[in-house]
Amino acid sequence: MVNVGLLVLRVVLGVIFAAHGAQKLFGSFGGPGLKGTAGFHGQLGIKPPYLMAVLAGLAEFVGGILIAVGFLTPLAALALIVTMAVAVFTVHLKNGFFSMNGGYEFNLALAGMALTLLITGAGALSLDAALGIFLW
């Protein structure tokens, strides 16, 4: 059952991240797209804003897909943890813990799930297992 649990964790986390990445990259689901994301990064003082918007969007979109299918899971998990850390320290920390106040609660939960996968690996029901990579 552990492998089923890891599969559920991966799919849920992967879908969340892929959807948020699609918002940043493509403007999907009412998101700002690259122009809006870059503008927001510029307001935060993140430089260069367009490149960092592309990198954040790709980390979330591609990382989410990789996590969902369990391919290169530790690398994808690490990219997502770093992305969430940047979000916490540049946007959410000043707002406190709770997400209803713009805090870091949601980012912490996502980073914790990604850290779990970094520690455990993707499990037997993954492309990593099927290909014999990243097994611990």
Shape field: globular
Return residue spans where pLDDT drops below 50 for at least 5 consecutive residues. Answer: none
- Which range best describes the helical content: under 10%, 10-25%, 25-40%, 40-55%, 55-70% or over 70%? over 70%
Query: How many helical elements?
Result: 6
Order of helices and strands: HHHHHH
Measured by DSSP, the beta-strand proportion falls in under 5%
Mean pLDDT: 97
Termini, distance in Å? 17 Å
Number of strands: 0
How many domains make up the 3D coordinates?
A: 1
Major beta sheet summary: none
| Class from secondary-structure proportions | mainly alpha
Q: What is the CA-based Rg, rounded?
A: 15 Å
Account of the 3D structure:
The protein has 136 residues and is mainly α. It has one domain. The chain is built from 6 helices and no strands. The chain is globular.
Q: Brief overview, please?
A:
The chain is mainly alpha-helical and 136 residues long.
Task: Indicate the topology.
Blueprint: H1 2-26, H2 33-44, H3 49-69, H4 73-92, H5 105-120, H6 127-131
Helix pairs in contact: 1-2, 1-3, 1-5, 2-3, 3-4, 4-5
Top keywords for this entry?
mainly alpha, globular
